[in-house]
Design a protein that fits this description.
The chain is globular. α2 (35-50) crosses α3. β8 and β9 form a beta hairpin. Helices cover 29% and strands 33% of the residues. The protein has 258 residues and is an alpha/beta fold. The protein contains 7 helices and 12 strands. It has a 7-stranded mixed β-sheet with strand order 4-3-2-5-6-12-11, with helices on both faces. A 5-stranded mixed β-sheet has the order 1-10-9-8-7. It has helices spanning 20-25, 35-50, 65-72, 84-96, 133-146, 160-167, 218-227, and strands at 14-16, 55-59, 76-81, 102-105, 117-122, 147-158, 171-175, 180-188, 193-202, 205-214, 230-237, 250-257.
């Protein structure tokens, strides 16, 4: 892989952490994600417990690809994200497809819904984007508050193994006709976090966005859930039906409202 050097020109580029530029190209760089498989697996888990497709809230919904698929399955979808740019893309995507969803700009750690949901989900390392264990616990408490009794919370998290071995200090380059995109990781062992720097080169202009993802031991996540009034029910190796392994990059956790 090619290392993208960024050190000497920092003063000439725009640096943000709002996902503004990333929103424009997010779908292009997540083509490897099987959203169809994600939607199918989530639907299996929810239908197994509820026997019906009711209201579902997607925390950190991004550009709404998963929300579109869930809406097509018959769910009443609400997408929550703090990025206006991501929500704008998501809203247009569903309207263009003739589907309905409610999109709300709120923070995961303090969101509030007009009525409690049958299911709440968070996928593609949304929980890892939270800045601290305290922020994760605050999010779980909001989930508990906004989830009806008997409802379920389904979310995935990047594992410590992924942060240490897969992301690590690696760099990735994406080159298309529209944008040249560099992805650089800086792994910190002390808290199993990765500082991710995204450099975009579009029409001769350069923009940079940075964010940090943190990984936690699964047992610590379980403790946060219990502290928040949620009980862990199931855990899987990603979206498979198999239990997690020591080398799992991502685990999927199902929790219920106490």
């Amino acid at each position: 892989m090619t290392l993208l050097s960024t050190g000497s020109k920092k003063r000439n580029r725009k640096v943000t952490n709002s996902y503004g530029i990333f929103a424009d190209y997010y779908d292009r760089f997540t083509k490897n994600v099987s959203y169809v498989s994600y939607a199918k697996r989530l639907d299996e888990i929810i239908m197994q417990r509820h026997k019906k497709r009711g209201s579902i809230v997607d925390l950190g919904c991004g550009t709404g690809t998963l929300d579109l698929l869930l809406a097509k399955k018959g769910y009443s979808v609400t997408g929550v994200d703090r990025s206006c740019e991501m929500l704008t893309v998501a809203d247009k995507k569903l309207r263009d497809a003739g589907e309905k969803a409610l999109f709300i700009r709120q923070d995961m750690t303090s969101f509030s819904l007009p009525q409690r949901a049958d299911a709440i989900i968070s996928t593609l390392d949304g929980i890892n984007h939270l800045k601290s264990a305290e922020a994760v616990t605050k999010t779980f408490k909001c989930v508990s508050k906004n989830l009806r009794h008997g409802g379920i919370f389904v979310f995935d998290i990047n594992t410590i193994y992924k942060h240490r071995h897969t992301l690590g200090n690696n760099c990735f380059i994406f080159d298309t006709d529209e944008v040249y995109f560099g992805w650089q990781n800086d792994y910190r062992e002390s808290d199993n976090s990765v500082l991710i720097t995204l450099d975009f080169f579009v029409n001769g202009n350069r923009s940079t966005e940075t964010f940090r993802e943190k990984a936690y031991p699964v047992m610590k996540i379980f403790g946060m859930l219990l502290k928040s009034g949620l009980i862990p029910l199931e855990i899987y190796d990603g979206i498979s039906h198999k239990p997690p392994k020591k080398t799992s990059d991502r685990v999927l956790i199902v929790a219920g409202k106490l």
